[in-house]
Design goal:
By secondary structure, the protein is mainly α. The protein is built from 4 helices and no strands.
């Protein structure tokens, strides 16, 4: 079972421990805020919203290189697993 805490940790790792550019870091901040809203109950974990977040991570991964792209792929997989568990 994937916890949102693990996804937040992966986002932190990409943002702080890779050579992610500014656009990637800003997008990850936005994604993390959306996930925090789901976690707090402000915004229910709606399947469409989760798919939007996965699509954004996929776009970021396509534009990234090396370690950043690999970490983003791992993050996307965690979010996909979380999505499956929510449905």
């Amino acid at each position: 079972m994937v916890e949102l805490g693990a996804i937040h940790e992966e986002i932190r790792r990409v943002r702080e421990d890779t050579d992610a550019d500014r656009d990637v870091r800003l997008s990850l901040d936005s994604i993390e805020e959306a996930l925090a809203g789901m976690e707090s109950g402000e915004n229910a974990a709606q399947p469409d919203r989760i798919k939007e977040l996965r699509a954004e991570i996929d776009r970021l991964s396509d534009d990234a290189d090396g370690e950043t792209a690999a970490e983003l792929d791992r993050l996307q997989e965690q979010l996909r697993e979380y999505e499956r568990e929510q449905l």
